[in-house]
Amino acid sequence: MASATLKGRKDGYEIHLDDAASFTDNLTDLTALFHQVHDAQQALQEEQANFVITTGNRLLTEDQETAIRALLDAYPHFEIVAFRADVVTTADLSPLLRQTHVPVSIGVIRSGQEREFDGDILFIGAIHHGGVLKASGSVFCIGEVSGIVYAGYPDDAEAVVVGDLTEATQVRIADMVDIVDSSNAHLTPHAFAYVNDLHAIDYAECINLRQIRPRLYAQMEE
């Protein structure tokens, strides 16, 4: 069984590396996949291809990331835009745990699973397609979000969702639902979701959180 699997994305491809396989096997299978994509792109008369590399419960070292990027030397129109894992390093996590007053949950929500929290939650990990994260307060996500994020359940329209929501399926706040559209110019990896004055879910850059939700911002500073 191949240790690297390919699937299409809205803006390119995603390659998942099996974290149970050796990194050497990952590189071998990656080499074959890049060659296959190159042939397919040529047949379609397209050159540019973007890739997101996901590694599950394995954190790649800088040397390993460099080794993967080196495979693209033969394909100058290919680009790796991100490496994503379902885990974080202790060094990355410790400052967050010290600075935030928001409860923290670490894990993976897989397809068909739903996790519910009372109040605000900082979720570190991955929400897979078909997975649901629900909270009665605001939701702060660090990691992959491909499923549904539901903040302000059931009726808190002041709640927000913060995180990279560009690959999410749906964002829900109180009784509002937004089917995520990657073409939305306001939806960026650094945006947050909120309910605007028209009672609809909207997106804004995180630097505007203080202006849009001053009460929430003040609570975070306490």
Automatic annotation (TrEMBL):
Residues 5-81 form the Septum site-determining protein MinC N-terminal domain. Keywords: Cell cycle, Cell division, Septation. It holds the Pfam family MinC_C. SUPFAM superfamilies: Cell-division inhibitor MinC, C-terminal domain. Residues 108-186 form the Septum formation inhibitor MinC C-terminal domain. Interacts with MinD and FtsZ. Belongs to the MinC family. This is Septation inhibitor protein. It comes from Schleiferilactobacillus harbinensis.
